[in-house]
C-alpha cells in the first residue's frame, strides 16, 4: 500500500486516508508518496471511457487504501447531475488549439472538480477512530476556493467549515456566492487584509498546538484544510488531464502515445502540479506551461532558479492567481530533487527566514525540461479576452486569459496539440469581461451578466444569475489577529 510522508522528512508514514484527514504534516511540509509513478495508468484504453471511469482508475492508484466501492460512491456523488456537462471537463477546439473547461460544476469554478469529492473522501476516513470527532475545515480564499469548499462541505456529516476572504478584494459575485451559502455547518467571514495575510494566519492557526488541544478537549473538533495542500484535493485534479487525453483521442486529434502540452493559469501551483502527477503516472505530457498574472513570482523562479517572495503584491483582475507563496511548488521540488526531504527543509527554512530561496542550477535545468512559463499584465489580459472573442467567438475569463496570452507568445508545434485549461466561467467576472469586450459595464454585476449574455449569445449559469435575489447570511468581518478567536467560536457552534 502507498504511504504518505512530509516533503520535509520521511519519518512519519500515513495512509492516504490519514493524510487526507490531517491535511498538512506536523513539520509544516506537504504529504507526498514515494509510490507515485510505480503504477502507470494504461493510456491505450482511455478513449471511450467516461470521466467517472477514468476517475476510478486514477484514484485507485493514488488513494489505494480506499476500497473500490468507496471510491465508486465518492465519484458517483461528486461527478453527477450537479455538473452542467456530462463530460465534466469538456475539451473544445479553440482556433488551432484546445480549451478544457474546468468550470461546469456547481459553483462555476475549476475548484469544484476537487472540492465536490474531498468531503466525500474525508467522510470515509474516520472508521478506525469512530469516536465522534468532527472535522472543521478552515480555509482562506482569494475568491473561488471559498465558495467551492462551502458548496462541497455544506451539511456534510461530521464536518463544519469556516471560510475567510480578504474584505473588498474578491468580486461582488464571488462575495455573494459565499455570503449566501446555505447549510447549518458553514461560516463565512471577511478579513481586513489581503489574501496572503489571511492565508498566513490560517497556517498559524493550524500550527497552534494549544488551540488544537483545546478544540479537541472541549469540542471534539479537529481542524483540517481544504486548500490544495490537502492530498484529497490535489489527487482528483489529476483525473482531468487523463480525461483531456481521452477526449483528444476520441476527437482523433492524437493517437495513443502522442505528446500533448497543457497551458495552466497558475496560483498555488495545485492545478499544474496535478498535470505533473499525470505525467509521472504515464500520461504523454510534453510540457506544462505555468501561466502567471502580474504576480509573476513563479515566472521569475522558473527562469532564474530564485524564488523570492519579497516583492510587491498586486491585486489584479485575476484574483485567484494573486499569490506570492505557491504552496504546492514544494511538492514539485520534492519529486524533482530526487525526493530529498533535507533539501526541501533547507529551502523552506530559507523562505521563512529570508523570504527567498535558490535551487541548484542542475535542479533548475531538470525542472525546465518539464515546466515552461510566461505571464501577462492586466492590459494584456484585457486584450486577450477581446482577441479570443474576435478570433474564436469564445468568451474567456481573466484567469484563463493569462494562459491564453502565454500560449499566444509560444511558438506552436503542429505535432503537439496544446490544451489551455480554463479555470473560471466568464460570468464570474462580468464587469472586467465586458470592459475588455467593449460592452456596457456601467450597471451592477448582474446587469453586466445580462449584457454579456445578450451580446455573446451564451447562457448565464443560473446559480450566478440567481445570486441577485439570494439572502445574505453572513456579514462578519474580523482583523487578522481575531481570526483564531473566530475559529474557536465556530467550533463551539458545531
Ligand atoms: C485557484 C484558481 C487558479 C489557480 O489554481 P492553482 O491550483 O492555485 O494554481 C486559477 N484560476 C482560477 C479561476 C482559480 O480559481
From TrEMBL:
Organism: Bifidobacterium canis
Name this protein carries in UniProt: Threonine synthase
Domain of life: Bacteria
UniProt entry keywords in alphabetical sequence: Pyridoxal phosphate
Keyword check for Nucleotide-binding: no
Short name of any one Pfam family annotated for the protein: Thr_synth_N
GO molecular function, one term: threonine synthase activity
Sites bearing N6-(pyridoxal phosphate)lysine, chain numbering: 111
Positions of the Tryptophan synthase beta chain-like PALP domain: 100-407
GO cellular component: cytoplasm
Its EC number(s): 4.2.3.1
Gene3D superfamilies reported for this sequence: 3.40.50.1100, Threonine synthase, N-terminal domain (3.90.1380.10)
Amino acid at each position: 500500500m502507498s504511504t504518505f510522508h512530509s516533503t520535509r522528512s520521511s519519518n512519519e508514514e500515513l495512509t492516504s486516508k490519514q493524510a487526507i484527514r490531517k491535511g498538512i504534516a506536523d513539520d509544516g511540509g506537504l504529504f507526498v508518496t514515494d509510490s507515485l509513478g510505480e503504477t502507470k495508468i494504461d493510456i491505450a484504453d482511455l478513449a471511450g471511457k467516461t470521466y467517472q471511469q477514468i476517475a476510478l482508475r486514477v484514484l485507485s492508484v493514488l488513494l489505494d487504501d480506499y476500497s473500490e466501492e468507496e471510491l465508486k460512491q465518492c465519484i458517483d456523488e461528486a461527478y453527477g447531475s450537479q455538473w452542467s456537462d456530462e463530460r465534466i471537463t469538456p475539451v473544445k477546439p479553440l482556433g488551432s488549439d484546445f480549451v478544457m473547461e474546468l468550470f461546469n460544476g456547481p459553483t462555476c469554478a475549476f475548484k469544484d472538480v476537487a472540492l465536490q469529492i474531498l468531503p466525500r473522501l474525508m467522510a470515509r476516513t474516520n472508521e478506525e477512530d469512530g469516536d465522534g470527532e468532527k472535522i472543521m475545515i478552515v480555509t482562506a480564499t482569494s475568491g473561488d476556493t471559498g465558495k467551492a469548499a462551502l458548496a462541497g462541505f455544506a451539511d456534510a456529516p461530521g464536518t463544519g467549515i469556516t471560510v475567510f476572504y480578504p474584505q473588498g478584494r474578491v468580486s461582488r459575485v464571488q462575495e455573494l456566492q459565499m455570503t449566501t451559502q446555505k447549510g447549518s455547518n458553514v461560516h463565512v467571514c471577511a478579513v481586513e487584509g489581503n489574501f496572503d495575510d489571511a492565508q498566513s494566519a490560517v497556517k498559524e492557526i493550524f500550527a497552534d498546538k494549544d488551540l488544537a488541544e483545546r478544540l479537541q478537549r472541549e469540542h471534539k473538533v479537529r481542524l483540517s484544510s481544504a486548500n490544495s495542500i490537502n492530498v484529497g484535493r490535489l489527487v482528483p485534479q489529476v483525473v482531468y488531464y487523463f480525461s483531456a487525453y481521452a477526449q483528444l483521442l476520441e476527437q482523433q486529434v492524437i493517437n495513443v502515445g502522442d505528446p500533448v502540452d497543457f497551458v495552466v493559469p497558475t496560483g498555488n501551483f495545485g492545478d499544474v502540479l496535478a498535470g505533473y502527477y499525470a505525467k509521472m503516472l504515464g500520461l504523454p505530457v510534453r510540457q506544462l506551461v505555468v501561466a502567471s498574472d502580474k504576480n509573476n513570482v513563479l515566472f521569475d523562479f522558473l527562469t532564474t532558479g530564485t524564488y523570492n517572495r519579497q516583492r510587491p503584491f498586486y491585486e489584479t483582475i485575476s484574483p485567484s492567481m494573486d499569490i506570492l507563496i505557491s504552496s504546492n511548488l514544494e511538492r514539485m521540488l520534492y519529486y524533482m530533487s530526487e525526493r530529498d526531504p533535507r533539501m526541501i527543509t533547507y529551502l523552506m527554512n530559507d523562505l521563512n527566514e529570508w523570504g527567498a530561496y535558490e535551487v541548484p542550477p542542475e535542479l533548475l535545468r531538470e525542472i525546465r525540461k518539464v515546466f515552461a512559463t510566461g505571464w501577462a499584465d492586466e492590459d494584456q489580459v484585457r486584450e486577450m479576452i477581446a482577441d479570443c472573442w474576435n478570433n474564436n467567438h469564445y468568451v474567456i475569463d481573466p484567469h484563463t486569459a493569462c494562459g491564453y496570452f502565454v500560449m499566444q507568445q509560444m511558438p506552436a508545434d503542429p505535432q503537439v496539440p496544446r490544451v489551455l485549461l480554463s479555470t473560471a466561467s466568464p460570468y464570474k467576472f462580468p464587469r472586467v469581461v465586458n470592459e475588455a469586450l467593449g460592452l456596457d459595464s456601467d450597471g451592477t454585476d448582474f446587469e453586466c451578466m445580462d449584457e454579456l449574455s445578450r451580446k455573446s449569445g451564451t447562457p448565464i449559469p443560473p446559480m450566478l444569475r440567481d445570486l441577485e435575489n439570494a439572502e445574505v447570511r453572513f456579514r462578519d468581518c474580523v482583523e487578522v489577529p481575531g481570526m483564531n478567536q473566530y475559529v474557536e467560536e465556530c467550533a463551539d457552534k458545531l
